[in-house]
Amino acid sequence: MNASFEEKSAAGTLLIVLIAYAWYSYTLMGPAPIDTSGTVGLIIGVIVIMVVGEIIYHSLLAIRDRDTASDERDRLIAALAGRAESVVIICGVVTAVWYLLLRDAPMPVVAVHILMFSLGFGEVAKRAAQLIYYRRGV
Q1: Which of 95, 99, 126 lies closest to 18, judged by CA?
Q2: Interval 118-135: pLDDT, tens
Q3: Using CA atoms, how far apart are residues 109 and 107, in angstroms rounded to an integer?
């Protein structure tokens, strides 16, 4: 069975997000951890990695796979996978708010990193759910 354009897109996006957030994690907590002033540059770096990776991957995918029309199944799978993403992001937002309000936030920049990780984990959950739904045959 050949994978559809949407399934290939989900797999590629999952890989790109994992690479971007692996770099983010390594830079944030690696041998020379960044301080508060480097947070904006780190976030911009993640965005650049993801945007450039998505543009390159989807350009090559569109050239190789001309049939990019999505059908009802693709839309259903995207909607179902969006639920998983929403749950993860909402948990991250609640955790960040809890950190800021209930702990008197000794380092408010930690809330920014919690939000960034919740966005990344949310995207991973969405793309992984899409791949699972495609393989299960929803």
Answers
A1: 126
A2: 999 999 999 999 999 999
A3: 5
